[in-house]
Amino acid sequence: MTAQQPLTYDAFVELAAADPAVVGLVLKGSRAHDGMSTRHSDHDLYVVLADGATAGLTRFAGHRTAGLDLVVISLTGFRAAGMPGFERYALARARVVLDRLDGGIARILADKARLDADEAFRNAGGLLDAYANSLYRSVKNHRDGQVLAARLDAADSIRFLLELLFALDRRPRPYNKYLEWELARHPLPGWDTDALLRAVDRVSATGDPSPQRHLFARVEAAAREAGHGEVLDAWGEDLDLMRPR
Q1: How far apart are CA 50 and CA 20, in angstroms?
Q2: Alpha-carbon Rg of the chain, whole angstroms?
Q3: DSSP sequence for 74-118
Q4: What are the strands, taking DSSP E only, across the chain?
Q5: Closest listed residue to residue 100, CA positions, set 43, 20, 15
Q6: Which of 21, 25, 34, 131 stands the most exposed, by the fewest C-beta atoms within 10 Å?
């Protein structure tokens, strides 16, 4: 394509589908989330090649324009992408455009969308401790009149809180852009989505200790039920500052 006629998504998909070395095409990002794309949204596409294959499409590796971003990757590399890593959620909710592996590409995406039990438990334990740490710092700073510090620590705690809640459900946390989208379609078990989002909004904006403590009470119960009581008990008497008054 010329500079005046950049490669389009549809044209590339047609080109890739004609190449037998391509075993999968996977669309991620806004275009893969119903109702989230805008006129500014490009097409983010993974081009999955058979291991060891020689393909002319490798010349498109790193291709990036306003309308089309391409990642050209081997099948082995695709299996490992986001495992772990920031890309995991994007691939967990990606859309299969082409699957020449009799559903194999779809199964790889399904594996990324579900944390195994051991991984989820390990992650949740660390995230619970990080959440408690930021929460404790926030309420302590608020008590001591450090308003800005309290608000910043509260905002930090929300990041760990959301990662924790999704880990407890064995799911990768969505990017902030897709949080409401994700929860509207796949609510967290035991949580009222609207109430959770209101609390997250209020805590992030104000650092108010009251909603933080009420959130913590819910989290503590869920964490103990999931077997993380030891993490919480390590905080000893400091738990009293985090719990509702």
Answers
A1: 9
A2: 22
A3: EHHHHHHTTTTSTTHHHHHT-EEEEE-STTHHHHHHHHHTS--HH
A4: 22-28, 43-49, 68-74, 95-99
A5: 20
A6: 34
* The token pair that represents 64 in the structure block: 């990036």
Count CB-CB contacts under 10 A for residue 59. 9
pTM beyond cutoff 0.70: yes
| CA nearest to 28, candidates 10, 7, 45 | 45
Amino acid identity for residue 51 in this structure: D
DSSP 30: G
CA dist 6 and 149 (Å) reads 48
**φ, ψ at 47 (rounded to 5°):** -110, 110
Tens-place pLDDT, residues 188-202: 999 999 999 999 999
Q: Euclidean distance between the first and final Cα of the chain, in Å?
A: 66
> Do the Cβ atoms of 19 and 55 come closer than 8 Å?
yes
Which residue in this structure is represented by tokens 């006129």?
39
Query: Each residue of 67-96: pLDDT tens digit?
Result: 899 999 999 999 999 998 889 999 999 999
Tokens 């909603």 belong to residue: 211
How is residue 166 written in tokens?
Answer: 């999704």
Which two structure tokens, joined as six digits, stand for 143? Answer: 């008590």
- Write the CA distances from 50 to 20, 35, 74, 99, integer angstroms: 9, 32, 6, 12
